[in-house]
Amino acid sequence: MPRRELMPWRRRGEMESGRTEEMWPMRRAFESMFDDFFRGFPRMGMMEEMFGGGTMPRINMEETEGAYRIDAELPGVEEKDIDVSVRGNMLTIRGERREEKTEKEKGQEIFRECRYGNFERTLQLPMEVDIDRINATYRSGVLHIELPKTAEAKEKVKKIEVH
């Protein structure tokens, strides 16, 4: 017996003739309902939005021979609104993106994807970072943080013999 005949919600003639016109209005209604519900969420996904992903800056981290480098995207944030700190082996980037409000043009909001308000991102640093020589610069909406390695970390490469 073909598997499609076991589907109780399908009529036998519907599958054979290819007729599904009766289902289209219901399908369009469901798609419209989901589109309306998810329209308020940014494209990064509902779970990230629910758990604060929308307010955390996106970062890239890379390792070179002498340092770690972090680039954090902070579009629309002014330099004076950024705070970078280290406590123990935790690096924290905090700040605020302020909304520019104009009283001249007040219109009806159609949708909103831009995020405003406070943000914070904390990263665990490798133990071999020289925290006294960390350097941060901000240019064109990107925060660049250079985390120099300690002298011991640069030398601490151990070759493991494979048996």
Topology, pairings included?
Blueprint: H1 12-17, H2 24-38, H3 46-50, E1 59-63, E2 67-73, E3 82-87, E4 90-97, E5 117-124, E6 135-139, E7 142-148, H4 151-155
Antiparallel strand pairs: 1-2, 2-7, 3-4, 4-5, 6-7
Descriptive overview:
By secondary structure, the chain is of the alpha+beta class. It is built from four helices and seven strands. A hairpin with a 2-residue loop joins strand 3 (82-87) and strand 4. The protein is flat, with a radius of gyration of 26 Å. It starts with 11 loop residues before the first helix and ends in an 8-residue tail after the last helix. Residues 12-17 and 43-54 have low confidence and may be disordered.
* Radius of gyration computed on alpha carbons: 26 Å
Strands of the biggest beta sheet: in what spatial order?
1-2-7-6
- The total of beta strands comes to 7
SS-derived structural category:
alpha+beta
CATH architecture name of the largest domain = Sandwich
Helices, by number, come to: 4
CATH topology of the largest domain: Immunoglobulin-like
Percent of residues in helices comes to: 10-25%
Instruction: Give the class-level CATH name of the largest domain.
Output: Mainly Beta
Compute the number of structural domains: 2
Shape: flat
Low-confidence stretches: 12-17, 43-54
Mean pLDDT: 76
